[in-house]
Write a structure and sequence with these properties.
It is a single chain. The strands form 2 sheets. Strands 3-8-4-5-6-7 form a 6-stranded antiparallel β-sheet. The protein has a two-stranded antiparallel sheet with strand order 1-2. The chain has a domain of 120 residues: Alpha-Beta Complex (endopeptidase fold (from Nostoc punctiforme)), CATH 3.90.1720.10. By secondary structure, it is an alpha+beta fold. The protein is rod-shaped and about 145 Å long. The chain has 6 helices and 8 strands; from the N terminus they run H-H-H-E-E-H-H-E-E-E-E-E-H-E. This is NlpC/P60 family protein. GO terms for molecular function: cysteine-type peptidase activity. Belongs to the peptidase C40 family.
Amino acid sequence: MKNLKQTVIAFTAAVAACATFIAVAPAATAADQNSSVVSSERSFPKTTTARKDLLKESTSTDVESDSNWGGIESLNVPQTKSQAEKDAEAKAKAQQEAAAAAAQAQSQAASRSATRESFDTSNLPAATGNAAGIVALGLAIAADDRYQYGGCNPPYNMDCSCFVQYVFAQNGISLPRTSGAQATVGVAVPSLAEAQPGDIIANANHAAIYIGNGMLVDAENYGYGIRTNPVSWSFGGQSYSIRRVG
């Protein structure tokens, strides 16, 4: 009986020891798994100054000479311009181009004025028939500031084609309103050498009355009004049609 009791006690102790081992083992294993130490290191310099202007664009920064930024410290980054700088440059360029264009226009105007003054209209060939009245009225209106772009309220406020239409109408000849249409009326004259006083010289942009000797009378623009000019000056190298009507 005593041996049986000792056996039971020994068995119970063994079971308890096993249970303790099983309960402790996972904890020990977990402790082993968590025993590794994790550490980190900054790859950028430490700063102790707080920025107040967080929305301001940064253009440069100061770092230690031995700082290691993973190679980006040696990158060659091209300088770029802000939108404000681009807009300012574009505005300055536009102003320069406008000034240059104005200077060129002024120079050309002075040159044209000098060229026009060198022509003498006192010895123009005599016109006959309706042409005589056309040339006479055209010259009578010349040197008058009646020009108006797109205007047609004769005898004032006339553009080039309205001037031609009005002068011919006063001599009993009806013409269309626009210069492009006037360039198709009547009979075509082959060349300026064969043109006669009273002929129409016109294209899609301008119309005038030929008065002889390479001269014409036309409503030029606001600056010149209605004047006598060389054909080459008024049409500036553009092609044109010479038409004879009446």
